[in-house]
Amino acid sequence: MLKFKPSLLTVAMAAGMKMMFIPSTALAAEQTTNNAETEIEVSATAAQNAASTTTSNTNSSDAAAEEAGDIERISVRGYSRSLIDSINAKRFGDTVSEQLSADDLGSLPDVSMADALTRLPGISAVRTGGQAAEINIRGMSGGFVFSTLNGREQVSTSGSRSIEFDQYPSELITSAAVYKSPKASLIEGGVAGTVELATVSPLSKTDTHNFVANVRGMYNDRASEVYGAEEYGHRVSFSYQGKYLEDTLGVAVGYARLDQPSVATQFIGLAYNDVKDVDGIVGDMDGTEDCPECEYISEGFELQHLGGVERRNGYMGAIEWAPVDNFTLKADAFISRFDSEAFARGFRVKLGGQGASVANPVLDGNSVIGGTFNRTSKSFTRVELVNDDNQDFDEVDNYGINADWQVTDNLNVNVDVSLSSAKSDFRNGLLWSNVAVDATADTPLFDENVSISYLLNGLDLPDVGFNQADAFTDIDRVMVSKYGIYPFENEDELKAYRVDFEYTLDNEYISSIEFGARYSDRTYSNDRSVFEYGNDGAFSKSEPPLQLTSDMATVVNWEGDFSYFPSYLAIDLNSALNAWFPSGIPQPVQTWGNAGGVIDPKGYTTNYSWSVLQSGDVFEKVTSGYVMANINMELGDIPVTGNFGVRVVHTDQSATMLQNVEGDPELGAQNITDEIGIINQNYAPTVQGLTYTDYLPSINLNFGITDNSQIRFAAAKVMSRPPINRLAGDISATVNDDGEINGSSTNNPFLIPFYATQYDLSYERYFEEGAFVAALFYKDIDSFIDTFAIEGYDFKGNGFNVPDYIIDEDSGEQIKTTNGTYTTAVNNADGGYIRGLELAYTQIFTFLPDAFSGLGFSGSYSYTQSEVESITSLGGDSVKQSLDGLSDHVANATLFYEYEGFETRISARYRSDFVSEQVAINEQVVNFDAETVVDYQASYQVTEGLGVLFQVNNLTDEPTKSYFGTESKTGTIQYFGREFYLGVNYVM
User: Fold this and answer.
1) Is residue 821 part of a domain?
2) Ranges of Low complexity compositional bias (predicted)?
3) Quick one: how far is CA 369 from the chain centroid?
4) 382 and 513 co-located in one domain
5) Which helix (H) or strand (E) holds 909?
6) How far apart are CA 974 and CA 562, in angstroms?
């Protein structure tokens, strides 16, 4: 029988479950025994010892420990336990937060922390490759979400500040908390919220020794439709925890491996970035600045099979030493290696822009969504057969040492030193093939007879037709025409040092004072390089195309919903490259090209200077301090707890830059040599940036209006720094013949953070079988990043190395320079409010007859709205779109049943339409359609140590679908397939 009472919750909180609800190796044990009844002994002494391991809520913990003496034994079991733990932590937390317990995280179907977090109220995910990766909180995208591991700031492999939570195996994380309202002691950085992950504290484990192993096989039911895709994969994990030397030394280690197929079948529409008069009519809907009679034309579209393998190896370790009762020293490490190898095969269709001949155009407003495009001598209309090879190697390393010292009965000191680093090496390899008139000819000719017909069908697959369709499977017609490698390497490292003090007071209003300081030093680097050979739009004479042989290519047919598309040749990449480059593929290079001021002994003819200009470093040093008072008082007969305080943050940010000074040594021009020896004399390297100081007050109040219900109120000023890559210095400035200085920069090292003032109000009701929570929130955001043209910009006053005058080449006279326009990223986009409602309900039906008493339900719903809008012209006509990451409606629900070792549950998560970056297309922010993802699992505990399980992820094979502004302009339609798991768990 599940015993679930208010006193139970109090005791559980006293046992140290505020931040680390179950020790790490207990996490693995919960994974294997979550269907068996679990007995937990709780005494006043145990609760007191556990409470001493946390530095917050000391007084309430002591009181809870006293109450614990009335309870000898608590019996909980299965999924119910995870819900209880989550409710405990939320109820007794001192901020507005959502919590996940160890059993909740370790229980299937959570492949990663991203999946696990999406089951919390107001949290949704953006799926990449079918898996949840980036999370959105309260309608805000991942760039506004701050993340910590064991209380330490995390850097990311994403190249920005957005954490890729699929890097974190759920098997190795003990607990998670999502703080929706901050407190002064939390590290700043989350306008949307702060996600805090935690790993093991080995001495807090009840058992002296514990070993757990998990093995699961998996199968993707769409892999058979994709030639060359893997159908099967596996997950393996184990963990060990042990206590030695009379429980003064604790050790924990864990390992989790994921090896899974990555499968997708997709259509991708491309942006409307060209114009042409296709109907000869000047109407109300027509009109662009350069072409009043024109309509907007899409760049084209792609039809692709995606396949590959994702491999993640996660490692966790911790050593904890408590030689005396009042001192604990802990060292821990978390390492993740996430590698993926993926191919993309199919068609990339180029419609040809202004030069194409367009017949039978179909219009939606002022945009062409269908018609027949014929190649002309002035167009680039063509169908490319693509066989792309993408490799991504990600590394995440986190190390920390923490010392906790209870100096006196009143004073606690905590010192923490940490290192967080991330590396990402993404190699985008592209292989283009085109149709020849006759590939067997001595000098093959590019087939100029190209006709493409298509009609978009909104959120359904389009109608397409190609006059060259029969040639797509003919090795006597198809030739490999271009190969390119485009590496993108990021490195991000953060060193942090922190000291915190807590002094307990004998005061009827303030229970304790916390204060502390933190210093962090972060360095981000971005390196680009490139190698290209051949031509994707024609056949190059100097770099001729490759004739295919039968052993290099296989005919591939489309299946399922895509079966009406024409077949194509899948080309074996290694065979083709070995034939094309018998001496080996040249390595990617950074090269300045053959422009003025360049010493180029290699004889390159293509200007690749962008690869060096887009490389560089960002430096960020942050010094912060805080003071916070913890409240424990009564207002009349109402207990009031919480905190108030202020955090002061000083930021020093800068970035490296290369300014084009046209070789003038007086302006700092230097010889800059790239990795293959090409020297550029045009640029002056500099480092520029700014410093600023922020004051962030906060207050959190909790009113216990009855024994089982409470009201929370929170208010705070919060901040989120710009994406780290947007601080890079990719600036350029030029002086025209009239002496006018103009410049541009995609990024800007002078960007300041996003700021918001936010308020939270919630009502929480707890009862024997569950809880009900209703919450309101409001955020007033100051501004967003936008690209803006600044007229009359003071280039010299802002650190640009620009001349005071130039010499007229004809007259030899001096011409005084003047300030022109600088186009850059600035914090000028209008801000606005984000507001919403969240409801959460948990019910365990213990009052039903015994066979049904294990039935339960947990669900939540959130409604969010915002006045923040942006303008997009990716679909041609300019239309408004909502805030990136915002779904008006987000809901999730889980129905579960447990009985005598058997457990089954079905979960669904829904989000309404939202705005996000389009799959596989950089910087195309589009509208995504609503989606509902359903997961199912069942398990049975065969013996005390052995359990078996079965699960299905994405039970209904829910696709992702997107569009440009209006549904008629199709963006992405992508199917991922269902994932089936079958496995065993063993505890010893």
Assistant:
1) no
2) 46-63
3) 32
4) no
5) strand 902-911
6) 11
What pLDDT does 733 receive? 67
Distance CA 400, CA 422 (A): 15
- Say yes or no to pLDDT of 374 above 80: yes
Structure confidence at residue 108 as a pLDDT band (50, 70, 90): very low
Residues 163-197 have pLDDT tens digits of 888 788 888 888 888 999 999 999 999 899 999 99
Burial of 551 (0-12, 13-18, 19+ CB in 10 A): exposed
Q: By C-alpha distance, which of 896, 785, 865, 936 is closest to 160? A: 785
CA distance 862 to 932: 15
Dist CA 975 CA 964 (whole Å) = 19
Which residues are CB-contacts of 396 (< 8 A; sequence separation ≥ 6)? Answer: 157, 167, 334, 335, 336, 337, 338, 421, 422
Query: What DSSP designation does 954 have?
Result: S
* Amino acid residing at 385: L
* Extended strands (E) in 505-552: 510-528, 531-534, 546-547
In a domain, 823, yes or no: no
List, for residues 226-245, the tens digit of each pLDDT value: 999 999 999 999 999 999 99
Alpha carbon dihedral 895, 976, 910, 313, in 10-degree steps, equals 70
pLDDT level of residue 719 (50, 70, 90 thresholds): very high
SS3 of residue 59 by DSSP: helix
Q: In what order do the strands lie in the sheet with 175-179?
A: 97-100, 175-179, 193-198, 145-149, 152-153
Task: State whether residue 71 is helix, strand or coil.
Answer: coil
> Which residues 6+ apart lie within 8 Å of 608 measured at CB?
530, 589, 590, 591, 592, 593
Q: How far is CA 703 from the centre of its chain?
A: 36
Whether 1 is in a domain gets the answer no
Task: Catalogue the E-assigned strands of 602-669.
Answer: 616-635, 638-660
Q: Is the pLDDT of residue 96 over 50?
A: yes
Q: Which helix (H) or strand (E) holds 452?
A: strand 451-457
Q: Is 940 exposed, middle or buried (0-12, 13-18, 19+ CB in 10 A)?
A: middle
CA-closest candidate to residue 620, choices 655, 670, 589, 584: 655
Q: Are residues 552 and 650 in the same domain?
A: no
Of 545, 565, 599, which residue is a domain's last?
599
Residue among 391, 382, 565 nearest 481 (CA): 382
The per-residue pLDDT for range 384-427, each reduced to its tens digit, is 999 999 999 999 999 999 999 999 999 999 999 999 999 999 88
Number of domains comprising the chain: 2
